[in-house]
Design brief:
heterodimer; A: four-stranded antiparallel beta sheet; 49% strand; B: mainly beta; five-stranded antiparallel beta sheet; 0% helix
């Protein structure tokens, strides 16, 4: 399968715990994006990378959130001290430099904070 | 006011019907317009991608953009039960790096 993959698919955690999600983009894609989607809403942009550089962060991305893409391939999104409001689907997407606007999404990681 | 407005539905149609899905937007700087299909508990799947005004056809799907009215549409001909999903419109500013999504319209095609 050469699509975007995400791990884990589901995560249940208790409030206050830290969680980390992983995204593996399509192999030739330079850009990687993170979005958050809550029930009944469209995805909302969080941050994006071009290769290993994090070039933009949304105001939605509080200090408790950090994302990395250390070698310009896979990316991780960490949420520290989780809150119930963090419960959502976290989506990763990737695109090539030639087709920046054609973003291809992974299946998402569904986070539930109890 | 949200930058992209989309009627959340739900919308139910009989199999074989023509479906019309719409979005309006407020930012005239949007240049790229996309439609994504999202099945329950899955990630969005890119269906159609258009640049500026005009029509684009791909099989049973036609995307239409009217920049003067800030209005985009997706038409599905001969709808099938497998088309049952949430349809999300998305837009991008030239040179920007994130997509602005509508809330999605949930479509059910009844056999």
């Amino acid at each position: 399968d050469t699509g975007v993959s995400q791990d884990p698919r589901h995560k249940i955690t208790k409030r206050g715990q830290n969680v980390t999600f992983r995204c593996d983009p399509i192999s030739e894609h330079n850009r990687l994006y993170w979005y958050r989607q809550t029930l009944g809403q469209g995805p909302e942009f969080l941050t994006y990378f071009q290769n290993e550089a994090q070039l933009e962060k949304s105001r939605l991305l509080s200090d408790r959130f950090s994302a990395e893409r250390p070698k310009g391939s896979f990316s991780t999104l960490e949420i520290q001290r989780t809150e119930q409001g963090d419960s959502a689907m976290y989506l990763c997407a990737s695109s090539s430099l030639a087709g920046l606007d054609e973003q291809y999404f992974g299946p998402g990681t569904r986070l539930t904070v109890t | 006011q949200k930058e992209v407005e989309q009627d959340p539905g739900p919308l139910s149609v009989p199999e074989g019907a023509i479906v019309s899905l719409n979005c309006t937007y407020s930012n005239s700087a949007f240049q790229y317009f996309m439609w994504y299909r999202q099945y329950s508990r899955k990630g969005p799947e890119l269906l159609m991608y258009t640049y500026s005004s005009g029509n684009k056809e791909d099989g049973r799907f036609t995307a239409q953009v009217d920049k003067s009215s800030k209005y985009i549409s997706l038409f599905i001909r001969d709808s099938q039960p497998s088309d049952s999903a949430t349809y999300l419109c998305a837009m991008d500013l030239t040179g920007a790096n994130n997509l602005f999504f509508g809330t999605g319209t949930r479509l059910t095609v009844i056999p």
